[in-house]
Amino acid sequence: MRMTGPSLVARAARNNAEWCHTFCRARGLDGIFEDGRWFSPARTPPLYPDAVTLRPGLTCDEALAGVDRGRGCSVKDSFDDLRLETVGFRDLFSAEWICRGDGDRTARSRWLNIDDDDALLEWEAAWDDDPDGSRFFPPALLDEPGCVFLASYEHSCIRAGAIANRGAGVAGLSNVFALTGDLESAYAGGAAAVTRIWPGLPVVGYDHDPSLIAAKAAGFDSMGPLRIWMVD
User: In whole angstroms, how large is the CA radius of gyration of the chain?
Assistant: First the structure.
C-alpha cells in the first residue's frame, strides 16, 4: 500500500512532535505547541530537537521564536523549507519521512511490549551502544497512554527494539535498533507489532542513510524530505 502526500507528512510531523513533547515532559521539560510548531524554551536532551515545524512556510524567526538559539540548539525542519544557515545553524543531516500502511501483522520474531522498569533498563542497555550508566528514558514513560516500548526477544534476551506512539491519526515508529545488524527485520517486525496494537493506522517515522534503506526494504515508502539543523 503506497501512502504519500503533504497531509500525511504533516500528520507524521505532528506525531513526532507529540512524542518529543511526551519524552521531554517525562524529563521535566514543558514543551509548547504554538503557531505551527512545537518547541521547548529550555534545552532538550541529546537526540531531541528544540523545535519541530508542523506546517510548511514558516520563516526562520517564526520557527525559532521562544527557542534558546545558543550552542546545542537543534531544529527539525519537517518540510525542508527553512534556510537556517542564514541565522547561524549548520545542516546536520537530511532524512525522509516514511510510511507503511496497515499490512502484514506477522512479526518475524517475538515482539513484546515493555511493561516494567527492569525490562525498560534492559531495553535501554540494548538500544544504547555506549551506555554511561545514566537513565535516558524515565520509567514514567511506561505509564504514558499511546506510548509503547517494543522489544524482540531471542532466548529471553532483547535482540531488537523500537518505540511506538499513537497520535495525529497515525502510529509513529522510532528508535529502531537491531543488535544483529538486521535493521530490515527490525523495521518489519516493529511495524507488524505496531499494527497489531493499533490496527488500521498508517505506521510512520523518519530515517536516513542505512536505516532508511532498511526501512524501505521492509515495505516503507518515502513521503518527503526533512532536515535537522544545529548550532555548534
Answer: 17
Annotation: CATH topology of 100-222: Aminopeptidase (3.40.630)
Give the count of beta carbons closer than 10 Å to the beta carbon of residue 135: 12
The strand pairing partners of 158, in sequence order, are: 153
Whether residue 213 has pLDDT greater than 70: yes
Q: What is each CA distance from 157 to 45, 115, 130, 135, 184, in whole angstroms?
A: 28, 15, 18, 20, 19
Q: Output the DSSP codes for 143-182.
A: G-TTEEEEEEEETTEEEEEEEEEEETTEEEEEEEEETTS-
Q: List the chain domain ranges.
A: 6-98, 100-222
pLDDT digit string (tens) for 129-183? Answer: 665 668 999 999 999 999 999 999 999 999 999 999 999 999 999 999 999 999 9
Residue 134 has a pLDDT of: 80
40-77 as b/e: b if 16+ CB within 10 A: beebbeeebbbbbbbebebebeebbeebbeeeebbbbb
- What confidence tier does 1 reach under pLDDT thresholds 50, 70, 90? very low
